[in-house]
Structure prediction request, 155 residues.
Amino acid sequence: MQEVINLLTKLNKTISTMESCTGGGVANAITNIEGASEILKFSAVTYSNEYKIKMGVNSKTIDKYSVYSSEVAREMAYNIARFANSNYGIGITGKLNRVDKNNPYGSDNITFVCIYDKDNNEYLEFKTEATKPSRALNKELIINKIVDKLLEVIK
Prediction:
């Protein structure tokens, strides 16, 4: 994450996150690095469908594709970048090896991530399978993959 912060600072770019299953883990990883206040504009943990919708995700997208989908991650990334007026937005939704009785659709171990580059109107989408034995280790796995993908997008 240090390299991400250094690049964003050097390029005078900012980032925002809308996280669900990672529970603010990406924002936490960013704020663990000195200088994060220069690049992190805003972060929202939208664990419920209600707050995803309040932050701009279309309820029809959730109804059509489920809250656990690349389409919802895409809208999360776009809307958080727009809301915070940041150069990059990250949207994360999925399940970390658990059944969600309120949203019974989709795999119980797939996380959907989207990084939106507002300046170029480009999206980088990917999935991560929760293969680790604990939530904490799966969050770490997802965050590490996000760092790798951010470095691809920013460079």
In short: The helical segments are 2-10, 25-31, 49-54, 59-65, 70-84, 135-154. The radius of gyration is 14 Å.
